[in-house]
Amino acid sequence: MKRNQFLYFLSLLCAPVVLWAQNPNVDIKNYEFHLTLNDENNIIKGKAVLDFEFTNPSSQLVLDLVEADGSGKGMRVDSVIQKKNQLQFSQSDEKLSITTATPGSVVIYYHGIPKDGLIISENKYGDRTFFGDNWPNRAHQWLPIIDHPSDKATVSFHVTAPSKYQVVATGMLTEHTNLDNKTSLYVYSTPIELPTKVMVIGVAEFAVNHLGNIANVPLSSWVYPENKKAGFYDYAQAEDILAYFSTHIAPFPFTKLANVQSTTRYGGMENAGNIFYYENSVTGTRSSEFLLAHEIAHQWFGDSASETDWSHLWLSEGFATYFTDLYAEHAYGKSKLDEKLQEERAQVIKFSETTKTAIIDSSRTDLMELLNPNSYQKGAWVLHMLRRKLGDEIFWKGIQQYYKKYKYANASSVDLQKVFEAVSGEDLQLFFTQWLTQYGQPKIKMEYDYKNGKLKLEIKQMQKEEFQFPLEIRFNYADGTLEIQKLDINEMKNKFKLKIEKEPISLDLDPNTNLLFEEFK
Prior knowledge:
This protein is α+β, with helices and mostly antiparallel strands. The protein folds into 4 domains: about 25-205, Immunoglobulin-like (Sandwich), CATH 2.60.40; about 215-300, 2-Layer Sandwich (Zincin-like), CATH 3.30.2010.30; about 305-435, Neutral Protease Domain 2 (Neutral Protease, domain 2, Orthogonal Bundle); about 445-520, Immunoglobulin-like. It is about 25% helix and about 35% strand. The protein has 10 helices and 29 strands. The chain has helices spanning about 5-15, 230-235, 240-250, 290-300, 315-330, 335-350, 375-390, 390-405, 415-425, 430-435; strands at about 25-35, 45-55, 60-65, 75-80, 85, 90, 95-100, 105-115, 120, 130, 155-160, 165-170, 170-180, 185-195, 200-205, 205-215, 215-225, 255-260, 270, 275-280, 305, 410, 445-450, 455-460, 470-475, 480-490, 495-500, 505-510, 520. An 8-stranded mixed beta sheet has the order 5-4-8-2-1-11-14-13, with no helix packed on it. The longest helix has 19 residues, at about 315-330. The protein is elongated. It starts with a helix and ends with a strand. Keywords: Aminopeptidase, Hydrolase, Metal-binding, Metalloprotease, Protease, Signal, Zinc.
């Protein structure tokens, strides 16, 4: 790899990428949210208690919070208190700036109608629901926070709501009190530091099925009562999925796992310990098995071991995609793995035809645009090729070491590379550079000629950037036999002379589905 490509790789991996700014001056240690919900209107009343430290000398505590605007939506801060003293504050540009030179604890009183982030609506049965929907940086639509995955904190939710509702939230239920004939209080709390993108509440009329402890984790299903039988049947598939990942990666990182039917934006959202799935994930046919696997895999990768910044999103989405593939291989065999990888390869190729970006993409200002096949399917393919390069034993050892090191912390792509280099003893710079920072994938054109027991074979790369990779070729013979040879492709044009006893009737590239490539026709 050329030196300038190497330097470009380092700049992408090591330099901070500002898509939604971090606050380098503040470290939030704990959030305590007191929220009051009602059925008369969509106004929420909030009290947020924040424990924080200044990491650099400062007289301003700057948080993310969307202010109320002319539409009547947004959050309006009423007062900020520190040690019984009123603090000065201002709201502008989605920021709440509080004047204080004293670290410790502040209490923020606020109210408003969420523009986004907390979705207050009706489900498909016409019943009112409230669901947190924070990804990527929408939590500050309803909570005063630092809305960036690198600033993790512990959290508790104290939710007061009409008594007809059940509440599920991040952490374990520590209190449920009927305050009067009309309202109830639910308190959930977790001692585990989390990114704000996966701190949520869900409030609705639920039917709840407690499946017991699976891999020492309390597992439950929360579905709408109208489709209770189908929902309990569908979501019970989480038992085998949870057991598989807990065995192969590490013990489950959180204190519970609740799978929740919800009314939100996404097909699935990996909120820590309580995953929200779209309404129609419940069918009674178990058609959402791989959706469950994807979101449950996120509990380890994305929620516990989180990306340092948005440009490294593949460490979340690529991992969840490939670990879904691994679960599919475990449950249904290699043919299912190959089927899924071939589908994912087609998605990557189609995306690359219109969007000329690499996996690590610092160009995006709209974070939603990162939800693309580079982050998901191409990220999965990087892990698959790494697995094939190193072998299963080293691959799993590397995964387990990576997770162990960055559990409840943040990692970048270079951190992953360093772990795998330490575990394998190999220099993986070229591998990570070309697959993470180069646009596209190899476009392979194959030409061959057979004479007198020798086959002349030419492999050309037709894309602009050079890739280096092993390539398997299957020789198919007229008598039904076949032979597979592996060649190292190190140049844009590669010529080989192979001695084979009989002329093949055809040659197939990558018969075992081990390479992300497209065949040039």
